[in-house]
Amino acid sequence: MGPVIDPVTPHEQLPDKVDVVVIGAGIIGTCTALFLAERGVSVALCEKGEVACEQSSRNWGWVRTTGRDSREMPLIQEAQRLWDEMNAKTGADTGLRRPGIAYLADSDAKAEGFERWLAMAKAHQVDSRLVTGAELEALMPGATRTYKAGLLTPSDGRAEPQKAAPAIASAAQRLGAKLFTRCAVRGLESEAGRVSAVITERGRIACSSVVLAGGAWSRLFCARHSLTLPQLTVRASVFRTTPVEGGPDSNLWTPKVALRKRLDGGYSIANGHANLAEIVPDHFAFFFQFLPALRAERGSLKLKLSSRFIEELRRPKRWALDAPSPFEANRCLDPDPVDSINQEAWDDLRQLFPVFQQAQIAQAWAGMIDVTPDAVPVISEVEQQPGFFVATGFSGHGFGIGPGAGKLMAELVTGAPPCVDPTPFRFNRYSDGSKPRLEIY
Questions:
Q1: What is the DSSP track for 199-221?
Q2: 259 and 248 in contact (C-beta within 8 Å)?
Q3: How far apart, in whole angstroms, are the C-alpha atoms of residue 217 and residue 315?
Q4: What pLDDT digit, counting tens, does each position of 333-378 carry?
Q5: What is the DSSP string of 318-355?
Q6: What are the residues facing 211 on neighbouring strands?
Q7: Where is the FAD dependent oxidoreductase domain positioned along the sequence (predicted)?
Q8: Is position 2 within any domain?
Q9: Alpha carbon of residue 48 to chain centroid
Q10: Among 161, 252, 215, 226, which Cα is nearest to 327's?
Q11: Of 292, 367, 381, 362, whose CA–CA distance to 332 is shortest?
């Protein structure tokens, strides 16, 4: 079972018509709804399960510029600015703190990768820098080993995933957005070649635009409408500890363990270098598009053939809009954590920081990360279906960039000048002859 999420009271009565329907109430969907509502746009936010019940409440909680792809840099900088406003916008504590984030290098090759990233990031005037010696040791009080170098961004921070999206959803409601949970959107209706409505399990909502922020479910929803979205999923395991006194305040990443201090005094912990990729039919459908990523991540991805292959093979790709859809059959992706991956991180953490020897694992969980071939999200209108917009494929980077992505999507939907150039995030980059580019540092 996933973490306990702050509750949000949904609306009951489905509207006959709104300007925009947003599908998915994770961090991207709630931010999109908020920024649309701020513009006076009428919004229905529909979620098949509960607010933030999937990866948006299960991620590390990092709000980072460090290590971003160059194509994401303008958008994360906008997101960082918006995070600073989010407590005021929501009237709640989203948990935002800025103690910095440091990636630690245990080899010369890794340190050289940090230097290459810094050379790229310099053009964006970030406060990132390489740290060594006493400055690095100060970030790691009580550590039993040293590292070659650290890539530190002092302005980076953290927030609480179980609090942020619910607070943002509530703020959108106060501005007039209507929130419906346990209300799966089964599909789209079109008129004169443009989106005209969605059909939900509770009924029809007429609209002029639809935003799909469906995370790991986006590929399936698009396929229902003959739209090819190359997207796969990765299972990421996390656990949290009981409160710990004297541990690091900065977020830290090492090749074996990553950690973030929580508001409750404990820590969220993950393996810094291991996730599970369960082989499913889409791995074969998108094999060549994902091959560069698979090669680049071969040391960190654990491939496994499991029952999911048969489950997804049997899952309907098409369904009638007046009958239950696959989204109603599975309200919330709640995979089991991979114990061996978590245990490796737990063992290394206690060796690295003896202060954790007295701590206990309070809870463990896993979530499904939606990934694209180039590890860059899609934030775009779909040219083949006017009025249909997609925001997905954040590849494990979505929580921190969420406010920026939501603002950009609201601008695209309303035709306002975009806060950043949306070209790198276009839906059709996988089909227009562009060669996918994967940045590795």
A1: EETTEEEE-SEEEE--GGGHHHH
A2: yes
A3: 12
A4: 999 999 999 999 999 999 999 999 999 999 999 999 999 999 999 9
A5: ---TTS--HHHH-SS--PPP-HHHHHHHHHHHHHH-GG
A6: 22, 389
A7: 19-412
A8: no
A9: 18
A10: 215
A11: 367
Q: Residue 376: which of 320, 422, 310 has the closest Cα? A: 422
**Residue 396 forms part of a structural domain:** yes
Q: Report how far residue 390's alpha carbon sits from residue 385's, in angstroms, rounded to the nearest whole number.
A: 11
| Residue in the structure block whose two tokens are 């698979």 | 294
Say if CB 69 and CB 376 are below 8 A apart. yes
Those residues whose C-beta lies under 8 Å from the C-beta of residue 205, and which sit 6 or more positions away, are 14, 15, 16, 17, 18, 21, 44, 46, 197, 198
Pairing of strands 388-392, 378-381: antiparallel
- Secondary structure (3-state) at 172: helix
What percentage of the chain has pLDDT greater than the value 90? 92
pTM of structure = 0.96
Asked if residue 6 is part of any domain, the answer here is: no
Of 21-25, 204-208, 312-316, 433-437, which range is least confident?
A: 433-437
Tell whether 436 is covered by a domain: no
Residue whose token pair is 């018509």: 17
3-state secondary structure of 132: coil
Q: Do strands 43-46 and 20-23 pair parallel, antiparallel, or not at all (unpaired)?
A: parallel
Q: Residue 36 is part of a domain; what is its CATH number?
A: 3.50.50.60
Number of domains in the chain: 1
In terms of phi and psi (left: phi > 0; alpha: psi -120 to 50; beta: otherwise), the region of 308 is alpha
Q: Which residues of 154-185 are buried (b: 16+ CB within 10 A; e: fewer)?
A: bbbbbbbbbbbbbbbbbbbbebebbbbbebbb
SS3 state at 361: strand
Calpha distance 198→204 (Å, rounded): 6
b/e 301-315 (16+ beta carbons within 10 angstroms → b): beeeeeebeeebeee
Tokens of 416: 């306002």
Q: Determine the Cα–Cα distance for residues 52 and 33; give it in Å rounded to an integer.
A: 14
